[in-house]
Amino acid sequence: MSIENGAAPRSLPRINDPAPDFEAKSTQGVIHLSDYKGKWVMLFSHPADFTPVCSTEFIQFARRYADFQALGVQPIGVSVDSIFSHIAWMRNLEQNAKVKVQFPVVADLDTRVSQAYGMIHPGASDTAPVRAVFFIDPKQVIRAILYYPQSTGRSVDEILRVFEALQTTDAYGVSTPADWKHGQNVVLPPPQTQADAEKRVADSSLKQHDWFLAEKELAKK
Fold first, then answer.
1. Which contiguous run of DSSP H or E holds residue 146?
2. pLDDT tens-place values along the chain, 221 residues long
3. Is there a domain that residue 3 lies in?
4. Looking at the structure, do residues 130 and 178 belong to the same domain, yes or no?
5. Is the pTM of this model over 0.85?
6. Within 108-155, where are the H helices?
7. Shortest CA distance to 74 belongs to which of 82, 62, 87, 65?
């Protein structure tokens, strides 16, 4: 799926859909989503530059940039403000918060990117995007989506946790339980046959809760 001639796609992208490609001006020049194929991408929107909650988020994203890099994640910001507004805001944050924003921020003046990703919600605002986060894998498939209202700032810890959980699932073919963090047990897929269930409960290497729920400790790398 791609964005063409300023038209939004007929349906908004969902989990496991291809991420819509785009070409857009950013604080780091013209970029395409496809430029980042082979990397994980955090595509996130913010309602407006020079606003209180957005400023706190960008300060934290900038401070935690090394953590995103450690997971191989490329953050890309999006809002409907101009390049000049973005540059002025980035300089303001660097001066006042002593942080440098090292990732691109898209100037989506025509709202093509925001509309294609469903970042503008009717009733929330006429044109300002909500706080959306799209977790995009190296094959440019959307793996998770988070939406927040304009009044609620996002948790960087949770965003990083989701990326690490998705990467763990891909690497080991497992799931991650509630509140999972790196180093904790993972959850195995449920048995699909009666024989598999009997084999599962007989496996003494697993932490058994019931035939359908078993935890496993991943080997330390």
1. strand 142-148
2. 445 444 444 468 999 999 999 999 999 999 999 999 999 999 999 999 999 999 999 999 999 999 999 999 999 999 999 999 999 999 999 999 999 999 999 999 999 999 999 888 765 555 577 899 999 999 999 999 999 988 999 999 999 999 999 999 999 999 999 999 999 999 999 999 999 999 999 999 999 999 999 999 997 65
3. no
4. no
5. yes
6. 112-116
7. 65
44 and 79 inside one domain: yes
Examine residue 116 and state whether it is found in any structural domain, yes or no.
yes
Total number of domains in the chain: 2
Which positions are annotated as active-site residues? 54
Q: In what order do the strands lie in the sheet with 207-210?
A: 186-187, 213-216, 207-210
Give me the amino acid identity at 4. Answer: E
The length of the chain, given as a count of residues: 221
In a domain, 12, yes or no: no
Alpha-carbon gap, residue 154 to 174, rounded angstroms: 26
